[in-house]
Amino acid sequence: MGKKQQHPNADPLSEPKKKRRVGFSSIDAGVEPNDCIKIYLVSKKEEVGTSDGFCINPVDLNSFFEEDEKIYGYQGLKITIWVSSISFRAHADISFQATSDGGKGITDLKSSLEKIFGETLLENKDDFLQTFSTENNFISSVVSHGEKLQTKASNGHITHFNGNSDAASSDLEVVRLKIDNLAAGHLYSRLVPLVLLLVDGSNPIDVTDSSWELYLLSRKKFDQPENAQHLLLGFAALYRFYHYPDGSRLRLSQILVLPPYQHKGYGSHLVEALSNVAISENVYDLTVEEPLDYFQHVRTSFDIKRLLAFEPSQDAVKSAVSRLKQGRLSKKSHIPRFLPPPDVVEKVRKTLKINKKQFLQCWEILIYLGLDPIEKHLEDYVTIISNRVKADILGKDSETAGKQVIEVPSLHDTETSFVMFRSQNGEVGGVQMDEDQAKTQEQQLQQLVDERIKEVKLIAGKVSETCMKGTSSLA
Questions:
Q1: What positions does the domain N-acetyltransferase occupy (predicted)?
Q2: Per the residue annotation, which of 289, 379, 399, 465 is the catalytic one?
């Protein structure tokens, strides 16, 4: 074996040493699920593998993956998920260029997707495609087990939909099933993935609790003259509570119109059916659990149209509007709150099943609609809204009433910027606000007022537009 010969007097330090190169692999930054996953709702097998289906926008896919909400170990990852609107089965098409552990491991995609889709996820594509024929009658079978509801209430009240609305079609059906019905539980288990994906902050209901009721909105479609199939448009889950001594209360916990059918009047149709159930069965009231903003707008618009046709509420609104028009409230030292009379609140609950909290939301919009022209009275109207907001936050006197709002910066939750406390014996004390704190509090209150005025104008505009369309269709 040869060896390089060195000069005996050579200085070993005089020759430069070769440096060994050490390589570092880049740390895997991961990819957000929202950026690499697309979900399509498809109604026929020919739409699978194409972009012809309806692409849905989930609330947040990231929360279903890892602790830091990312997918690791994949290069060029693309996940396409197809959800059948016929059987509500699902199939995922996963493709990527390569996998490697960049220090964070390799995400188990199958188990992560199963957190969302559970047993509805079919691994084999052919099995998924077969469901379009083998489970073609799935929704129709479930609907056949339900109690068909009339959209007409026992008092004869009907909300007339605009003739141009898809929801005005006579082929719509609303049926009710108890959740402990085997068919209802089976369907709901397949709807859970859409609930998780599309309803912010939702959790599956307990299908073993018989107090839950499932309401299905479907439309008949006729592939053949003698064979009517049902297409599921939306659903609602309500919980029936006992109310002393021998009554019940209904709470709407979940409501979802499937994405392809939203903004077409179907949500209002479903809300109408639920309200008619509450009236016909004479429940104490119908409440909604933490309604999202858009649904609250739909619900309030529907309730206002009913209140406009309800004589006791209309008389009360006319009286409040008359007093408000007398005017210049912003110049007065004491501003009345313009609340509806307690007996009217009770009549609305008994007859329309609208609870007090919801009626007060509608009340301010009813007053706004009664102020015609609104421009002439807008300053006074804003004043009563501002007075109400301050009373809700600070106390009934709109000053302190023993309550104070103090700004509290929080590193844990940046949105938690103030707290409210009540001083002893209703006296102001304990914590004194400096000028900056008082200014910040006033800005926060004004922001709440501005948001409420914006909401009132939006809903009032929708109600006025609907009423005008209804009038023109009858002309």
A1: 232-289
A2: 289
Three-state DSSP class for 268? Answer: helix
Question: What is the model's pTM?
Answer: 0.80
Q: For the chain, how big is the Rg over CA atoms in Å?
A: 30
The DSSP code for 108 is -
CA distance 346 to 203: 33
Q: Report pLDDT digits (tens) over 148-180.
A: 995 433 333 433 334 445 554 458 899 999 999
Sequence length of the chain is 475
Q: Residue 289 catalytic?
A: yes
Pair 401, 422: CB distance under 8 Å = no
DSSP-derived pairing of the beta strands 78-84 and 74-75 = unpaired
pLDDT tens track for 403-429:
455 555 555 455 555 555 554 444 444
Domain limits, CATH 3.90.360.10, in the chain: 33-134
Distances (CA, A) of 362 to 84, 296, 460: 39, 11, 10
Over the chain, what is the mean pLDDT?
83
Where along the chain do the CATH 3.40.630.30 domains lie? 138-290
- Decide the pairing of beta strands 172-178 and 147-148: antiparallel
Strands (E), 225-350: 227-243, 247-257, 286-288
